[in-house]
Amino acid sequence: MKKWIIILLVFAVFVISFGFIFTATTEHRAAEEKKAANQVKAKEKKKAKQSIEIGTPTLFVHGYAGTKNSLGHMMSRLEEADGAHKALTITVKKDGTLSVHGKYDKYTRRPLIQVLFEDNKSSMVNQTKWLKTVCATLKRDYHISRINVVAHSMGGVSFTNYLEETSTQNAYPITEKLVLIGAPINGLAIGDSRYNLSENGPKTETERYANLYKNREKIAKSIQVYTIAGDVLDGTESDGSVPLASALSAKFIFQNVTSYSEKVFSGKTASHSNLHENEEIDQAVSEFLWD
């Protein structure tokens, strides 16, 4: 009897031990299979992500006395209507240093970057210098090699000057597309026919225009430019702040680029401060940038 009890105990121990070994082996195999499956999924996910087109970021640059709201509302509407995503807000402080908020992912669809000047009433020379700092930082720290730009008013003048000073330098991203909204390329003389346009350019040139025109050949020919101007239809042929002739004189600065187009919007919603609040202009900007 004792012999059978011993045999049964040995058999039970064997069965239990085998069960533990089998369970451990099965669990180990399952863990290995799960690990392998996860690795395959990770590779597929990485491959799929790499196949997605890297979005070209669009910088938004405000004008004289501009704030985060100047182009911020347009950016929000583009996010809602066109699937864009605000990635970064870059504030240039008065001493020229940068304060950056947000997160940039190169695979983000239609990433938007807002550029703000703390000293928002500074000169074109200073704004150009600050734009150099911003764009050099984007290339160096975020590996952004190409950008689009939407610039309102004085921001458009400063970015045009930036292009003339940087287009041949590798430290800065290549600008693919530029939208100028109400940019006073030839000054602010409203109602003065001396500044009207002829076939060859403004009849009278401001010093600003003359300098931009003189250096126009320095702008990379690969850029595409879209000028938007406003006419409030009050007889001044202006948006209330910038003459049509001044905004449209950009065509002579960008006469050698790959593509140049322009459009005049009319009525109360085409006043200078309403140009970036006009949903028709939102659509025009979206089509130019992304269609």
From TrEMBL:
It holds the Pfam family DUF915. It comes from the Bacteria. This is Alpha/beta hydrolase. It comes from Listeria kieliensis.
